[in-house]
Design brief:
Layout (H helix, E strand, L loop, with lengths): L1 H16 L6 E5 L3 H14 L6 H4 E5 L5 H8 L9 E6 L8 H8 L5 E7 L9 H9 L1 E4 L8 H11 L3 E2 L1 H11 L3 H15 L4 E2 L1 H8 L7 H10 L2 H13 L6 H20 L6 H5 L6 H8 L4 H18 L10 H13 L1
Parallel strand pairs: 1-4, 1-5, 2-3, 3-4, 6-7
């Protein structure tokens, strides 16, 4: 899924770059990253730099009504062969009805683009159907967190670099489901690497500050091995650096890991375990090894410990005298003993 999305956006950009432009575009969906990528393309590539002062208009939905937008779209370009009317935050426009008549006969020399964020336009409406008929609708939904490592791998490879699955997972777990943030951090890494190279844990740590040794990914690996020394070293680091490793980010990751481990143990056929767990096949050996160190009963208890730690970190059953670092230390001790 992540690969398909990454390929789709690249295909779209190539097609638009070739000049195959339609009269109107709607950029929408829950994933703002793709809206930003396409919006930046339209703003920087449709009208040449010399003509932009005359043939490019950028509007914001909260400042205009649709009558004004349509009026600008009907104008003729001054210097170039076409003009761009780009409407950002278009979801703030209240009345879209005046657009209907324009869509019946759009200006052939205008590219009209709407960036519709944060909420969905009703696909059953006549307006949405007419937008699809006259122009093109790009609707990008947020990808699942389990797809983030693959999305990162595809993004890195499409940019001409390489990355190991473990490093992609490190970035995914450290940065979360924020494609704009991930892309920004990767751009910094690419700048350091030059024209080509491998995105390694060392490079990631040097550029982003994400530790290759002291991160939640290494913690879950140490837990799977029941490596007491390494677990203690990592949780002590977390306790000393709570802003870099907040317990609110650590607990969900450990929960997902333990749930996947429970699923793995119960799989009757482990030949397709990667698909069942939603992870890269690279990590299946780790789950296989961890499965030998935990029983289902122990894992069920660990889930209970996690729930208790989550409540205490939120101030429930905690008078405020126990720090997040102490809660995490106690949790990991219970899991590995």
């Amino acid at each position: 899924m992540a690969k398909q999305v990454a390929e789709n956006i690249q295909t779209v950009l190539r097609r638009l770059q070739e000049g195959d432009l339609l009269p109107v575009y709607l950029l929408t969906g829950e994933e703002n990253y793709y809206i930003d990528v396409l919006s930046d393309f339209f703003e920087n590539k449709v009208v040449d730099e010399v003509s932009r002062s005359f043939d490019q208009t950028v509007l914001y939905g909260r400042d205009v009504n649709m009558d004004s937008v349509v009026g600008m779209a009907k104008r003729y370009p001054v210097l170039g062969p076409r003009q761009l009317v780009l409407v950002k935050e278009a979801q703030d426009i209240r009345d879209w009805e005046p657009l209907m008549s324009y869509l019946d006969k759009p200006a052939p020399t205008t590219v009209l683009v709407f960036c519709y964020r944060h909420k969905k336009m009703d696909k059953r409406t006549r307006l949405f159907q007419q937008l699809k008929k006259t122009g093109e609708v790009f609707d990008y939904q947020r990808i699942y967190e389990s797809q983030l490592p693959q999305w990162i791998t595809d993004y890195v490879e499409s940019s001409g670099y390489t990355i190991l699955p473990g490093c992609a997972l490190l970035l995914a777990e450290s940065l979360g489901n924020n494609l704009s943030l991930i892309a920004n951090e990767l751009s910094k890494i690419f700048a350091v690497l030059g024209e080509k190279g491998a995105v390694t844990a060392s490079v990631v740590e040097r550029v982003t500050g994400i530790s290759k040794e002291y991160n939640v990914f290494e913690l879950q690996t140490a837990i799977g091995r029941r490596d007491v020394v390494k677990c203690n070293r990592i949780v002590n680091y977390f306790a000393a650096n709570p802003k870099s490793n907040p317990i609110q980010m650590v607990l969900p990751t450990l929960y997902s890991y333990l749930v996947r481990l429970m699923i793995y143990i119960q799989l009757p056929d482990k030949s397709d375990a990667a698909t069942a767990l939603g992870v890269n096949p690279f990590f299946i050996k780790e789950y296989a090894n961890a499965a030998g160190n935990f029983t289902l009963g122990k894992l069920a208890s660990c889930i209970g410990y996690l729930n208790e730690a989550d409540l205490r970190s939120k101030g429930i059953r905690n008078a405020g005298t126990v720090t997040d670092g102490e809660i995490l230390k106690e949790l990991v001790f219970k899991i590995i003993h």
